[in-house]
Write a structure and sequence with these properties.
single chain, mainly beta, Methylamine Dehydrogenase, Chain H, 5-stranded antiparallel β-sheet, 4-stranded antiparallel β-sheet, 3 helices, about 5% helix
Length: about 450
């Protein structure tokens, strides 16, 4: 992340910080066209999403515009399908993967470890998620690590498909997205991207994955749109500088992208893949989460020690909530009554009552809490502690920590399966994903 001095010298697209005053809110722009980002010449040094991690100074280029860009389609508009009978494809997978399965015992519970060689990028035969009613499992106060999956280099973002059959991992240092089959617990496809991926958001129907990306060398950011049936990039949407953890509204109609260095949100129409509105927020937005009715968006503004509240009907900023130091991520409970915020430099989680937009509790967790997710049953919240190599589990009824579970090195994001039985933690420093059993029967 840039220092404050560097940020002050950056050309911004709108008023920011205290100087903006009442000007926080929507800024209408001509919708950006789709464009392709040039493939970087190489990966720069790791750029952390918070203070205290190595940074690299970026340029202050304004957003470039280009021609529409899409990939992975045939001339007749249909996507290429995998060839050959299923039996041959299975033999090919078995022949190309080097899998070692070791069964050990830890605390009386069996743990499997899968370290799999990654396949070459290929078109998957996955038909897409099967949408059906999900039966929720009661979340456990003490989850158990059930396995470790090798993925690409420097994994950051993660998202689980609505049917729970796939997990999408942003391999930041490899410019790829790894696709995990949760039945086999291994990587079955790898999708190349034109720029380092940061975070992944899925459409509610699971048919599209939206991957934020930017180059360490500087320049504009983008959202890569993936077709999850073919694991190919089908569109690239230009956005602001250094986009972080975007989110799709529960109704699936819009994508909100927090642009860290531009200090604003891009609102994208998911039908047209066009930016329709830019909302200026306090510095520097990291994360977006919605209430279940899609009416409000909560935004973690990292350098301002604030959470912004956006009315999604008017796309205006309606409140700013003081929280702990360096809010990094945010998650809203399934019933919409609370929002949980990781305070990265305070080793804590702030709990917001969404009816009053006020902090009602502060919970001590591990060092550098990076990401928070709430179990589908709403009983527990999970926090990745980037500086402690652990996952804190919070009982949402009494705001007490019920467990601290060791995971890999530098845990980044935790994503929970829709049925609540498993959680997936990306370990940025280990190039792995930890798989946790978070409910009985998992």
């Amino acid at each position: 992340m840039r220092s404050r001095e560097d940020t002050d010298q950056t050309q911004h697209r709108g008023p920011t910080g205290a100087d903006a005053g009442e000007q926080f809110g929507p800024v209408l722009r001509r919708p950006r066209q789709l464009m392709a980002l040039p493939r970087p010449g190489g990966n720069g040094p790791h750029r952390g999403g918070h203070r205290g991690q190595p940074t690299r100074r970026r340029g202050t280029h304004e957003l470039e515009r280009g021609r529409p860009h899409s990939r992975g389609e045939r001339g007749d508009g249909r996507f290429l399908q995998a060839r050959g009978p299923v039996g041959k494809r299975r033999r090919l997978v078995i022949g190309t993967l080097l899998v070692t399965v070791v069964v050990t015992t830890f605390g009386g519970a069996g743990i499997w470890h899968v370290i799999a060689g990654r396949q070459k990028p290929r078109t998957a035969a996955y038909p897409g998620p099967r949408l059906s009613t999900v039966t929720l499992s009661a979340s456990l106060p003490v989850p158990v690590v059930r396995g470790i999956i090798r993925v690409g280099t420097g994994p950051r973002g993660a998202a689980v498909s609505p049917d729970g059959h796939r997990v999408y991992i942003a391999d930041n240092a490899d410019n790829t997205v790894s696709v995990i089959d949760t039945a086999m617990n291994r990587v079955i496809a790898t999708t190349p991207l034109p720029a380092p991926p940061q975070y992944v958001a899925l459409a509610p129907n699971g048919r599209r994955a939206y991957v934020t990306s930017y180059n360490d060398a500087g320049g504009p950011g983008a959202v890569q749109v993936m077709n999850t049936a073919t694991n190919t990039v089908v569109a690239t949407i230009p956005v602001g500088r250094n986009p972080y953890a975007a989110a799709v509204t529960p109704d699936g109609q819009r994508l909100y992208v927090p642009n860290h260095d531009s200090q604003d949100l891009d609102v994208i129409n998911t039908r047209t893949n066009a930016v329709t509105t830019i909302i200026v927020v306090p510095p520097n937005p990291h994360w977006v989460a919605f209430t279940p009715d899609s009416r409000r968006a909560y935004v973690a503004d990292h350098e301002s020690n604030l959470v912004s509240v956006v009315d999604t009907a008017s796309n205006t900023l309606i409140a700013k909530i003081p929280v702990g130091r360096s809010p990094h991520s945010i998650a809203v409970s399934p019933n919409g009554r609370e929002a949980f915020v990781t305070d990265y430099d305070a080793k804590s989680v702030s709990v917001i009552d969404t009816s009053s937009d006020a902090v009602t509790a502060t919970i001590a967790v591990g060092a550098n809490p990076q990401c928070v997710a709430v179990a589908p049953d709403g009983r527990h919240a999970y926090v990745t502690n980037n500086g402690s190599d652990s996952l804190s589990v919070i009982d949402t009824a009494n705001d007490h920590v019920t467990a601290t579970v060791p995971v890999g090195h530098g845990p980044w994001v935790v994503a929970v399966a829709p049925d609540g039985r498993h959680a997936y933690v990306t370990n940025n420093g280990s190039d792995t994903v930890s798989v946790l059993q978070t409910a009985s029967g998992g």
